[in-house]
Amino acid sequence: MSLTAESHRVALSDGNSIPLLGLGTYSEPKQTPKGACAESVKIAIDVGYRHIDGAFVYRNEHEVGQAIREKIAEGNIKREDIFYCGKLWNTYHPPELVRPTLEKTLKVLQLDYVDLYIIELPMAFKPGDVTYPLTADGKFVYHKTDLCATWEAMEACKDAGLTKSIGVSNFNRRQLEMILNKPGLKHKPVSNQVECHPYFSQPKLLEFCRQHEIVIVGYSPLGTSRDETWVNVSSPPLLKDPVLNAIGKKYNKTAAQVALRFSVQRGVVVIPKSFHPERIKENFQIFDFSLTDEDMKEILALNKNVRYVELLMWQDHPEYPFHDEY
């Protein structure tokens, strides 16, 4: 496929399309200076990004919305040029909470619709506004998950025009099949956002999703932070990999640019997060070179089948997605 900085959208099964490269906006709220997210989104839009990935639970959607609105006001872009993905958090899975939660997101963003709304995780927590509900002795309080009921409420949001497309995140094959085989399904998920990079290239899930016209959106496409409170640090840092660096040298590119290019050439959407202007620019510079079949094979061979983001604190949840092979 010929991809350019101006045109790198791929089709979604509902007739909409998604840019293959986006900006991730997750950051630890306590460690992020006020305004850093808004500044990064504005820089990204100036660089050429048109896809912004966010979430209510990131606590910075007000900054994302402000940045998008300011850029539209400048007259260089229109609302329809921007693709925004928002997410439904675990404490809002009951069907009656889905639409009000999306409406709250729209109010925070001060936008009329999002382009994609996804169920962030297949695990429901105790409903309410406490993001991480805990018992007195510090255990997470789960809620009985009915993914099909939650999905029907997502479909209603699409029908109401609050979101153009609907999808999921961190769903395994069984959980996807549950929705795909749901009696009376109106809209199937257009995407599944999962960890995906050269050390965890998800060949089986990717193949399953392709068969069902579900686009994979890869988070942590450059590996992830080395924060051992929630990251599996037994897998070495991706960007130090000798193969990625050697291939990068050949094209005068960084290991990060090679890793991103590898994913987009497989048709995987990437959403690298960065609040550093130089890295935001660098991550976008992947459309002026392409990897050969030989390069792609070499990078595919790096797969270790080891996740960085294991979410082990929730592994006792009945719908924890990562016990299954894929």
Automatic annotation (TrEMBL):
Domain of life: Eukaryota
Pfam families documented for this protein: Aldo_ket_red
GO terms for MF: Delta4-3-oxosteroid 5beta-reductase activity
Binding, substrate: H143
Entry's Gene Ontology BP terms: bile acid biosynthetic process
Residues annotated as the enzyme's active site: Y58 (proton donor)
Record-annotated NADP-dependent oxidoreductase domain positions: 21-303
Site (Lowers pKa of active site Tyr): K87
Family: Belongs to the aldo/keto reductase family.
Protein's UniProt name: 3-oxo-5-beta-steroid 4-dehydrogenase
